[in-house]
Write a structure and sequence with these properties.
Length: about 350
C-alpha cells in the first residue's frame, strides 16, 4: 500500500480519539506525535519532502513544487516544520510570530463544531517570540535543504498600541527576512484588538510604506529579494476590498493571502459553541473566501499572485478555489477534519 494511502486509513481512527479530547490538548498531542513519528518511525511515513507534480509553479519569483501549502497558525513557533513536511506540502507557512513572547488568551480558546466541519479559535497570537521562532526555523532540515517554499507570518504583540503596530511588523520583518522565502503580514486576525483596522485605506498605506522601504533595504543587505504578502479577512464588503486592492497595487505588495477566519456566524447558528468569541474557520468560511478571491482576481488582473485559503476540505473545494482565481491554496481546518491525505488529494487535483 502506498504510504500516503496508509496515512489515509489511519487518520479516521486517530481522529476518533483526538475528537474525544479537549481541542487544544488534541492539537498539542498531534504535533508531539507527529514529531515522534518523524524522528523515530520515519520509515513508515511518506518522505519529508513536497509531493512531486508534473510541473512546479512559478509565482512571485518563487518556485513552488506543488500548489498546496500549510496555512499559518498551526505551527505558531516554527517548532514542527520537519514533522509537518511529511504531509507533502509544496510550501509551509509558520507563525504568526510577534516580536516578544506572549501567552495569548486564557483557555479554553479553541472549539470544534463538527456538524459544520468548523473550528472557532481565539488564541490571540500565543507564541514564544521572534528569537525562539528563528532558532526553530534554523533547526529544520526541510528549511536547510530548501525542499519547499517557507513562508514566515508576522504580527503585533497585544500590548503594543495599534498606532505603533508598524514598529512590531518592522521588527518581525527584519528578524525573519534572512530565513524567509516569503513574509506574510497578518493584519486580519480577529483576536488581537483593532488589528483589522490596519486593513483600512489610510492605516494600510502608512503601514505598507514603512514595510516596503524596509523590504528594499533588507534586500540590499541580504542580497536576496523576499516577497511581501498581505493576509486579509473574509469580512470586508466589496467597497472596502476594492479600496484595499488599490492600496495593494499602489504600494506594490507582492501577493495576497485570502482569507483568515470569519466573524460571521450565520452558517452555524444554533450549533454548540457557535456563539463563542473568535474566528470561525472550515466549511462555513469557504464561500466567503471564494468570493473574496474572485473579487481580488477581477480587481488585480490575471498575473497578481493570490493564495486562496478558507474551508478547503476536499480536492473539489481546492479546484473551486483555483477557479475563483487562486494560484495556490492553503489548508488548516481541513487537516483536522480530513487528515494528511487531503494534501495529496489536493496536490494531485491541482496539478495543472
Ligand atoms: C486554531 C487556528 C489558529 C490560527 N492562527 C493563525 C495565525 O496565527 N495566523 C494567521 O495568519 N492565521 C491563523 N489562522 C487562520 C488560518 O491560517 C486560515 O487562514 C483560516 O483558518 C481559514 O482556513 P481553513 O478554513 O482551512 O482553516 C488560524 C486558524 C485556526 C483554525
Amino acid at each position: 500500500m502506498p504510504k500516503t494511502a496508509l496515512a489515509f486509513t489511519v487518520y479516521p481512527l486517530a481522529r476518533r480519539v483526538l475528537f474525544s479530547l479537549d481541542p487544544e490538548l488534541a492539537h498539542e498531542l498531534s504535533l508531539s506525535g507527529l514529531d515522534f513519528a518523524h524522528r523515530w518511525l520515519g520509515g513508515l511515513l511518506p518522505a519529508a519532502q513536497p509531493i512531486s507534480t508534473s510541473s512546479p509553479v512559478e509565482l512571485a519569483g518563487l518556485r513552488f513544487p506543488n500548489r498546496v501549502g500549510l496555512a499559518a497558525g498551526l505551527d505558531k513557533n516554527a517548532a514542527h516544520i520537519d514533522g509537518l513536511s511529511r504531509f507533502g506540502f509544496g510550501f509551509i507557512e509558520v507563525g504568526t510570530v510577534t516580536p516578544e513572547a506572549q501567552p495569548g488568551n486564557p483557555r479554553p480558546r479553541l472549539f470544534r463544531l463538527p456538524k459544520a466541519k468548523a473550528l472557532i479559535n481565539r488564541f490571540g497570537f500565543n507564541n514564544q517570540g521572534l528569537s525562539a521562532f528563528i532558532t526553530n526555523v534554523g533547526r529544520s532540515e526541510w528549511v536547510r535543504d530548501r525542499r519547499g517554499v517557507l513562508g514566515l507570518n508576522i504580527g503585533k504583540n497585544a500590548k503594543t498600541p495599534i498606532e505603533q503596530a508598524a514598529d512590531d511588523y518592522l521588527k518581525g520583518l527584519t528578524g525573519v527576512y534572512p530565513w524567509a522565502d516569503y513574509v506574510t503580514v497578518n493584519i486580519s486576525s480577529p483576536n488581537t484588538k483593532n488589528l483589522r483596522n490596519l486593513q483600512n485605506e489610510q492605516a494600510l498605506e502608512a503601514l505598507l510604506d514603512q514595510l516596503k522601504e524596509a523590504q528594499a533595504q533588507l534586500a540590499q543587505e541580504h542580497r536576496k529579494a523576499v516577497p511581501l504578502f498581505l493576509k486579509i479577512a473574509p469580512d470586508m464588503d466589496e467597497t472596502a476590498l476594492g479600496q484595499l486592492t488599490q492600496v495593494v497595487r499602489a504600494k506594490q505588495i507582492d501577493g495576497l493571502i485570502a482569507t483568515n477566519t470569519t466573524l460571521d456566524r450565520s452558517l452555524v447558528t444554533g450549533l454548540p459553541h457557535a456563539s463563542e468569541t473568535g474566528g470561525l474557520s472550515g466549511q462555513p468560511v469557504h464561500l466567503r473566501s471564494l468570493q473574496t478571491v474572485r473579487q481580488l482576481r477581477t480587481d488585480l488582473g490575471p498575473d497578481f499572485p493570490i493564495i486562496g485559503v478558507g474551508g478547503i476540505l476536499s480536492a473539489a473545494d481546492g479546484l473551486a478555489m483555483r477557479e475563483a482565481g487562486a494560484d495556490l491554496v492553503q489548508v488548516y481546518t481541513g487537516l483536522i477534519y480530513r487528515g494528511p491525505a487531503l494534501v495529496a488529494a489536493l496536490a494531485e487535483r491541482l496539478d495543472r
